Each structure stands twice: as structure tokens, then as C-alpha cells.
Amino acid sequence: SQQGEEDPQALSIQEGENATMNCSYKTSINNLQWYRQNSGRGLVHLILIRSNEREKHSGRLRVTLDTSKKSSSLLITASRAADTASYFCATREEGGFQKLVFGTGTRLLVSP
Amino acid sequence: NAGVTQTPKFQVLKTGQSMTLQCAQDMNHEYMSWYRQDPGMGLRLIHYSVGAGITDQGEVPNGYNVSRSTTEDFPLRLLSAAPSQTSVYFCASSSRGGYNEQFFGPGTRLTVL
Asked: A73-89: per-residue pLDDT in tens?
């Protein structure tokens, strides 16, 4: 399996704090994507970073990518209770069908 | 647009029974995929399709069949259900190209007794 690993598995913070979660992967990639899953629901796309990019921002989200270390991080600034969810990274390999390979996820709990 | 729809939402089967999980999308996406999600294991790809009439195996295809007769529909068939297939199943679609996001359905929670 080429599944990535995410760290930490679970994270508990207070509203207003920043949340950082990390993703490591194994192969050369075309891009890396982050998804959010609210409890019992389908996944929702958050942000995509291409292999030739090092950092990307979208609202309160900041994603970094280090292809030399095969790792990425997702930073959520000024967290809100509504950010409580599981977060997954997914990598798209170079070439072929370019299917997504998902990590195991980080469960984020933001307390009011 | 309804996006990606899945039916049923919940299903309980007995070992050995067969059934079909339905998936449909109304976004004219070429790519469709089926994943299963088990606790602590993230999502694993079962089967995928790059267009009508074209399907291929993913990471965990054993015990499942798919077909893609139209762009819109991508059913997943369990041939002879086993307790190991107890899981939450997600269907996803995306347009052609490696930089496009996947859109997920709400999932089907399947229990095999």
C-alpha cells in the first residue's frame, strides 16, 4: 500500500488556537490534497498543492509541501468549534490514472 | 445539481447474500471511484473508472464487481457478502485531469452479519 500517514492521530485544542497536522507519503507525487470529513459524512475537498509549489493559502488554511522529505502540513489558524472534524491528506501519483491515495487521518476536536 | 448520490444509506446483510450499492453523479464527470472506510485505516480504493465502459481494480478489489454503462452511474456489487466487508462505502467522482478535486457521496454504511 502507498497509503500516507498522518500525525497526530488526534488533536484537541481550544477555540482561537491554531491546529497543525502533518502528512507523510511514500512515492513521487503530482499533487497533494487535503479533505475534511465531518462525523458520518462524505469527504469535502479543502485545498490542493502541486508538487512544484511549497506553500499555499486558502482563507484560514495554510498548506506546505516538502517533496524532498515527502511530507506536508496543514495549518488551521484561529480554530472554531465548527472545524471539529477528521482531516485527510491524499496524494496523486505522477502519471497513469492519477488515483488518490488517502492517509489515515487526524481527528481534530475544537472546544468552545 | 444533486452532486454525487448514493443509495441505500444503511444496509444489513447476512453472510453470503449479494447486493448492489448505487452511485450516481450529475456533473458529467469522467472519473468515478469506490472507496471503503474502516476505523483507523483511512479510505482504500476498491475500483475505479475513467469513463463509460472502462473500469479497473484499486487496492482492495476482491469480493466486489463494478460496471460503468453510462457516465452517470457506477454501481458496486457485493457478490457474496462476508463480515470483513462491514464498512462505510463512499463513491466519488471528478472531472478528467490530475488537478481536479474529487466530490464524494454521503456514504453507505454496510453491516454483514
From this structure: 999 999 999 999 999 99
